[in-house]
Amino acid sequence: AQRVTQPEKLLSVFKGAPVELKCNYSYSGSPELFWYVQYSRQRLQLLLRHISRESIKGFTADLNKGETSFHLKKPFAQEEDSAMYYCALSGTGFQKLVFGTGTRLLVSP
Amino acid sequence: GAGVSQSPSNKVTEKGKDVELRCDPISGHTALYWYRQSLGQGLEFLIYFQGNSAPDKSGLPSDRFSAERTGGSVSTLTIQRTQQEDSAVYLCASSLMVNTGELFFGEGSRLTVL
Predict the structure, then answer these.
(1) Of A43, A48, A51, which to mutate for an interface test with B (greatest number of B Cβ within 10 Å)?
(2) What is the mean pLDDT of each run of 10 residues along chain A (109 residues)?
(3) Nearest-CA neighbor of B71 among B32, B19, B21?
(4) Scanning every residue of chain A, which has its alpha carbon at the shortest distance from the alpha carbon of B98?
(5) What is the DSSP string of chain A?
(6) Looking at the complex, does the CB of residue B53 fall below 8 Å from at least one CB of chain A?
């Protein structure tokens, strides 16, 4: 069974501080991992996917199969990064997407 | 349309009544998903339609919940004999039938059961 765990419900940091949102997963096959973001009064949208190995809005995430983790990182947080972040996983061949419970990131000035 | 459209945006109902929530996916998207978003519960998968294949109903919480997708496009999620614990935001998403993992979400239907 697929499972995604985001241990932090709320992460509060000051502007300019580094950010790491944790995500751990459980899946017996080859996972595909994603981060989705929901800004205030906006729709949930894709932020980045591990297969693309991209950096979006300064965020990066590395898939660590040994630790079954896909933590989201940004070296210097900005106030506009404040949002709800969801980690998501799908199985080989893209089946249904399973989401974690989400972490609210609050960046204070 | 430009994006996934859901209606109604807000629905208040009395316990025991039936409700229908509608989703219009992006034109050409063959995959359609329903999720439930509750406080503290994150995004809970409900059901998944992919083309003409049988839907994956593994996330439906009880037999009071059902969904259909007509003509490979519009989908309706029906909740019969609503309970207070059904109160949540119901999100619909669609995607192309390619292995991208990018789901496009609607704004959701907020259901409140009194």
Answers:
(1) A43
(2) 91 97 92 93 92 86 92 96 95 78 96
(3) B32
(4) A94
(5) --EEE---SEEEEETTS-EEE--EEE-SS--EEEEEEE-TTS--EEEEEGGGT--BTTBEE--BTTTTB--EEESS--GGG-EEEEEEEE-TT----EE---EEEEEE-
(6) no
> Which tokens belong to A99?
């989401």
Contacts of B70 (CB under 8 A, 6+ apart): B76
Cα–Cα nearest to A72, from A103, A94, A41, A101: A103
B-interface mutation test, from A99, A103, A104, most B Cβ less than 10 A away? A99
Residues of B in contact with A45 (CB under 8 A): 104-105
pLDDT tens readout for residues B60-93: 999 999 999 988 789 999 999 999 999 999 999 9
**Residue B112: strand, helix, or coil:** strand
Edge-to-edge strand ranges of the sheet holding A72-74: A19-21, A72-74, A60-61
Cα distance between residue A78 and residue A108, in whole Å: 8
